[in-house]
């Protein structure tokens, strides 16, 4: 069954994400100065620091009191650190969401400059975050599709299922 799913995915390429020019005009340039966890970073725009919660994605939380998912949380944070720490990004708010979450963080997409990689999209593609269908976002469909691909191919946090299957552990 698993091989069949991978074959189907191979015949249907992953979506390409390009942000609309009008949407990009709403954003601002900044440098990533801190990675707080896989889906939260701090940026500095030249005059002040902003805490950014990546729109449409959720990675395991560092320091979860239950202790669950800590390995995956560290992997997500490390991936985000390697992908964007010190990089110049365009911070682009999602027009489908409130500009701030209940913790006061800005909710946005980060677009690496100059090549244009969407950090939110690449985090899900790498398997270090899940899409958040409970929050309507501009890229909800794309993020969901990329999560399914990461699950099927067992990338990132979804690799634990692959390892368990290889050693014969069942849930």
Description:
With 171 residues, this protein is an alpha+beta fold. The chain has one domain (2-165): OB fold (Dihydrolipoamide Acetyltransferase, E2P) (Beta Barrel), CATH 2.40.50. Helices cover 35% and strands 22% of the residues. The strands form two sheets. The chain has a five-stranded mixed β-barrel. A two-stranded antiparallel sheet has the order 4-7. A hairpin with a 2-residue loop joins strand 1 and strand 2 (40-44). The radius of gyration is 16 Å and the shape is globular. The mean pLDDT is 85.
Strand order of the largest sheet: 1-2-3-6-5
Number of domains: 1
Instruction: State the CATH topology.
Output: OB fold (Dihydrolipoamide Acetyltransferase, E2P)
Question: In this structure, how is the largest beta sheet organized?
Answer: 5 strands, mixed, barrel
Number of strands: 7
Into which percent range does the helicity of residues fall? Answer: 25-40%
Which architecture per CATH? Beta Barrel
Shape: globular
| Category from helices, strands and their pairing | alpha+beta
Please report the first level of CATH classification, the CATH class.
Mainly Beta
What number is the mean pLDDT? 85
The fraction of residues assigned to DSSP E strands is 15-25%
Radius of gyration: 16 Å
Order of helices and strands: HHEEEEHEEHEHH
For the termini, the CA-CA separation is 18 Å
């Amino acid at each position: 069954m698993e091989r069949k799913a991978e074959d189907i995915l191979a015949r249907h390429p992953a979506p390409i994400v390009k942000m609309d020019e009008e949407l990009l005009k709403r954003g601002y340039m900044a440098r990533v100065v801190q990675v707080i966890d896989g889906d939260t970073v701090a940026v500095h725009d030249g005059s002040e620091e902003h805490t950014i919660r990546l729109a449409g994605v959720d990675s395991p939380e560092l320091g979860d009191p239950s202790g669950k998912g800590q390995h995956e949380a560290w992997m997500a944070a490390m991936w985000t650190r390697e992908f964007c720490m010190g990089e110049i990004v365009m911070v682009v708010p999602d027009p489908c969401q409130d500009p701030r979450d209940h913790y006061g963080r800005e909710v946005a997409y980060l677009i690496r400059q100059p090549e244009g990689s969407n950090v939110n999209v690449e985090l899900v593609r790498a398997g270090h975050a899940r899409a958040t269908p409970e929050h309507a976002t501009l890229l909800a469909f794309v993020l969901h599709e990329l999560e399914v691909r990461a699950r099927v191919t067992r990338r990132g946090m979804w690799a634990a299922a692959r390892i368990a299957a290889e050693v014969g552990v069942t849930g």
